[in-house]
Amino acid sequence: MIIKNAKIVTSSGLEDGEVEIENGKITRVGKSIVGEKAFDARGLVLMPGGVDNHVHIEKDYLKVRTDDTVEESTIASLFGGTTTVVDFSFSENFYSRVNKFQGRSYVNFHFHVIANSYSQSLEKIKKDGFETVKFFTIPYANSPPGNMGDLASILEKGFSVMVHAEDWDLISTLISRMGKGGSELHLKSRPEESEISMALKISYLARMYNSKVLIAHVSSPQTLEIPGLMYEGTLHHIFLDPSYYSKENGYLYVTSPPARGGMTEKVEKFDMISTDHNWFNRKTKEEHKYFPDLVPGLPTVELRLPMMLTYFVKKGLPLWKAVEMNSINPAKFNNLKTGEIKEGYSADIILYDFNEKWIINSRELHMADWTPFEGFEILGKVRYAFLNGELALDNGELLGVKGRLIRSC
Ligand SMILES: [Zn+2]
Description:
Blueprint: E1 2-10, E2 13-22, E3 25-30, E4 38-40, E5 45-48, E6 50-52, E7 55-56, H1 70-79, E8 82-90, H2 94-101, E9 108-114, H3 120-127, E10 132-136, H4 148-155, E11 160-164, H5 168-176, H6 184-189, H7 192-208, E12 213-215, E13 230-234, H8 235-239, E14 272-274, E15 277-278, H9 282-286, H10 304-315, H11 319-333, E16 349-359, E17 377-387, E18 390-394, E19 397-398
Helix pairs in contact: 4-7, 10-11
Residues 54, 56, 276 line the site of zinc ion (ZN).
Organism: Candidatus Acidianus copahuensis
Pfam families: Amidohydro_1 (PF01979)
InterPro entries: Amidohydro-rel, Metal-dep_hydrolase_composite, Metal_Hydrolase, Metallo-dep_Hydrolases_sf
């Protein structure tokens, strides 16, 4: 099949072109490709499907389970133009979460391996096609916070690592000195110094081992000034600010680390934009509305491309840069052959219509019963999405195509 008459986002701007797809892969990109079946993309902008490097779908291993199913959150992903999600699984019992997505996911899926120290099982999982480790410097699930020795043990073996970087020594001290209270205490107990100091230490190890280290969900503009690291941004750290925690329903907006503001002017510094999607409905958040019992996490997987593309157009920034952050760089970090309009890559492609303007309204999305971005104005809509070369979203209609597990190559 050949997608014809599209405007393709390239590093030198929008270019007229055609994309040929065969057996799930992009086989040619160019002009005047001759072939049988044609898909007319007139008036639409063609770009690679999004790769969301950070999602927590059907998360059932923490104190509070998310309110979604694999089906629901991956349908939302597809409607938002994301064709690959990268979730997390523990190095012990790694395949239990992988299998949970099989046959249920409406987009392709991949996993980071959660581990706070080096082990033989990391090598085995890497050989199997999962090369990135998620490391926590705060307690997570049943594990204590990882320290610099733990991190070094993984980096010296050549793994790429994504780090949740907050200083638990400082945070636990602050929490122990605060009583029960509102969500503004969450912000106070997790100051930006906690992230900056931790990222600074980690940057030393990253340089020492010449490793790819990605700081997950960067919340402080100052963290972005530290050299030698990669940076992941999220919608909430870019578009929300501390005023949300003083609202009457401030508990809804709680994330770890919290949103601090001051990020919108720094967007170009990020290597990638992810969501850190956690689908919690209002009721679940409300059941845990007081500090320190708050439930961090926001439903956002459907909004990443629309919000980022809107931001780039409004600021007059090149769309190519948005494509790098939304698709190319997260695919590269995980060593996945998707996220680019290039011969040999998986035919995960979206056609975006910049002519439509709409206002975010949780009732019209495919996620939780609320959204942190209610009322935001959006430019453009995902009209069509191809998943492994198959049309999966047809002018806003879900066709029921299922995604597959993808491995590093
Ligand atoms: Zn996360």
